[in-house]
Amino acid sequence: MFNLLAKHPDMKCHVSDLNSDLILAYLAIRDKVTEVIESLENHSKKYEKNQSKYYYHVRESEPTSQIEKVSRLIFLNKTCFNGLYRVNSKGKFNVPLGRYTNPNIVNRENLLTVSRTLQSSNLEFFCRDFEQSLHDIKKGDFVYFDPPYQPVSNTANFTSYTNRSFTDDDLERLANLAEKLDSMGCKVLLSNSKSKIVENSFSSSKWKIKEIRVNRAINSNSKKRTGHSEILVKNY
Ligand SMILES: C[S@@+](CC[C@H](N)C(=O)[O-])C[C@H]1O[C@@H](n2cnc3c(N)ncnc32)[C@H](O)[C@@H]1O
């Protein structure tokens, strides 16, 4: 989206995610970026004094203000193990502290640039299930799905961005929605892991599947972090 907006600043765009904290982060960076930066600077100073103690203190905290919620999300993302986002069944973030010598907790220039981009009046944000986006999609629209990746093995189970895992049924709902959008005349693009279940869900001839090699940062075994395949599925 950021890449397309750089080329077409007036592009009309709807962004949806079920994770309310993620949507809140986009809105706070758009509307209150100076406060977000100030709050991150505060986290950064305290983290430098005692990294582990401060990390777990923030991880346990439950801030109620919008700014504090968002700076907590960014702080944890920058300092946790491999930038992973995972919550337990109660919705509590449960990733351990990462190993960084100098994490870039306050990326001021980047936050300011992102804020300016998000201020386009043609961008709208929604916290909702992907199926609900069908209501405002029309013929000719381009739709990109970036769902939680399906696990490629039993040990690679990483689907908990929200406290509700992305199940095989969700994948089936997504494939059905993609079919519907295709028949409406939309351009559909989806990224996912290279797994049998995803390839089977998009096996009809309208879907072109392209394999791409990626270096994956998220794996507890660092030797397994390189040389993975992901897929792009598209109908155009
Ligand atoms: C691979 S991440 C994509 C993150 C996003 N593209 C971004 O960069 O901000 C997968 C996302 O799918 C979201 N998600 C999970 N289940 C969903 C659902 N049923 N409807 C909509 N979004 C969902 C998760 O909250 C997570 O943010």
Describe this protein's structure.
This protein has helices at 2-7, 20-31, 33-49, 51-60, 66-79, 108-118, 168-184, 196-201, and strands spanning 13-17, 123-127, 142-145, 187-193, 208-214, 228-234. The protein is 39% helix and 15% strand. The protein contains eight helices and six strands. The radius of gyration is 19 Å and the shape is globular. The model has no long low-confidence stretch (mean pLDDT 91). Helix 3 packs across helix 4. It folds into two domains: 21-116, Orthogonal Bundle (Adenine-specific Methyltransferase, domain 2); 129-234, Rossmann fold (3-Layer(aba) Sandwich), CATH 3.40.50. The chain starts with a helix and ends with a strand. The chain has 236 residues and is of the alpha/beta class. Strands 3-4-6-5 form a four-stranded mixed sheet, with helices on one face. Strands 1-2 form a two-stranded parallel ribbon.
Overall mean pLDDT: 91
Number of helices: 8
Rg from Cα: 19 Å
For the biggest sheet, the summary is:
4 strands, mixed
Number of strands: 6
Please provide a brief summary of the model.
This protein is an alpha/beta fold. The protein has eight helices and six strands, in the order αβαααααββαβαββ.
Secondary-structure topology with pairs:
Layout: H1 2-7, E1 13-17, H2 20-31, H3 33-49, H4 51-60, H5 66-79, H6 108-118, E2 123-127, E3 142-145, H7 168-184, E4 187-193, H8 196-201, E5 208-214, E6 228-234
Helix pairs in contact: 2-5, 2-6, 3-4, 3-5
The structure holds S-adenosylmethionine.
